[in-house]
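Input record (one chain):
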Amino acid sequence: MSNALFDLLEKLDSAKVHYSISRHRPDTVLVSVSVIGQRIEIDVFRDGHMEISRFIGHEDIEGGAELIDSIIALA
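The corresponding structure, as predicted from the sequence alone:
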């Protein structure tokens, strides 16, 4: 029997892609992946379907410690 979450983790492990696992909703497990230029959030649902959000951007340095205050102010 195949399991979507474990199948995904095996693919990421085989590709040597670092990920973290968390749970913020009762019906999903969130697998967060960071690769160069991208942050990817993969929600794996109990029924096995997945919803994937991909955030693409540059990795330029935008500032120093002072930038943290402005980021928090926007949250």
